[in-house]
Amino acid sequence: MSEKRVDKSKEERHPIRSFLSFFLMLAVVLLVVLFAAYRDGTGFDILRRYLHYGRAEQAGGETVYHYDSASKNRFALLGESLAVLSDASLSLYNRAGEEVWSTPVTMTAPALVSGGGRAVAYDVGGTSLYVIDQSGLLLELTASEEEPYISATLSQDGELAVTAQKKGYKGSVKVYDRALGPDPYFEFKSSQRFVLDGYIFGDHLAAVTLGQENGVFVSNIVLYKMPETEPAADYSISGGLVAAVGELEGRLATVSDTALTFANAGGEITGAYSYSGSYLREYDLGGTGFAALLLNRYRSGSVGQLVTVDKNGEVLGSLDVREEVLSISASGRYLAVLYADRLAVYNPDLQPYATLQGTGDAREALMRPDGSALLLSSGSASLFLP
């Protein structure tokens, strides 16, 4: 009777062969990702989304947040948490969609602004103000009825500037450092011009003031090197009223109704983009290395242009728009544009990156820096993974 031998060497080689196959496949994937990253910087985001969410693409939207439906809802992203402000409550939801903090509020004109990993909620013309991060409440302020809040901003470092009416003055801006103590460490009080807004730009406060020249309203940016009380520099935004002030790659950025203007801490205008007679409809300064503008050709209607601009005021990309746009949102290397029937994600040069057809009743989109986006409807938010 013959004895049948088993070649164990072949069996032993199978695990090694499987490991080598897996290693080669992984190497190919990494090479593709590195090539994409080298080409446009988005490859690392693809890998990050895959490792974080366990899948690289999702054609639809997975509902991740539920909140009370309200017509005045305002939204802000804090990492993977979502802050929701209405006229009756301020709530914070974690990545799992769980409400981790909430407080009742009474606001007539709720506003919610984010920056530096924080969000500030306040009542425009009211007396309530809250600063939160992913853990919950950091600071609560209450103004007097005689000195209501006008606006509030957060710098890229999370420092707070609060603009309010001031008895005996034409307005003031109080500055709170990142520690957010109950008392401001700097205050600008204006006796000559009305104060509309303020922003902390490095070690400077940029105060947006409004005056008149030859019977025409002119916005003036006054820069204070804190804690000095005398102005370090100032410059005018000719022919336009400033709607927002922020920062883009170390430049102070002001959005007016006629132009996007960039300046340095010395008050020198370093770049500008004129709307050339078009009407500003939407804007976002949250992109990495770019600002986004939605301009209309006419005061009403949906005929216009989507434009991205760098810190020098140079156009990176432009796109003719002939359909309704519900919202735009810039973050990282991406711009989300929510149309009536779809969500389009673009690169800074407005080349298409991803599209989601059929967005249901979504009314707003919030872009995340990793290339994912939140679609916000009246009572829930869904996640889109390109």
Strand neighbour order, sheet with most strands: 1-32-31-30
The portion of residues assigned to helices is: 10-25%
The number of helical runs is 2
End-to-end CA span: 65 Å
- What ranges have pLDDT less than 50 throughout 5 or more consecutive residues? 1-6, 8-13, 56-60
The total of beta strands comes to 32
- Rg from alpha-carbon coordinates: 25 Å
Largest sheet: 4 strands, antiparallel
Described by the principal axes of the CA atoms, the overall outline is: globular
Structure description:
This protein has 386 residues and is mainly β. It is built from two helices and 32 strands. A four-stranded antiparallel beta sheet has the order 1-32-31-30, with no helix packed on it. It has a four-stranded antiparallel beta sheet with strand order 2-3-4-5, with no helix packed on it. A four-stranded antiparallel beta sheet has the order 6-7-8-9, with no helix packed on it. The protein is globular and about 70 Å long. The relative contact order is 0.09.
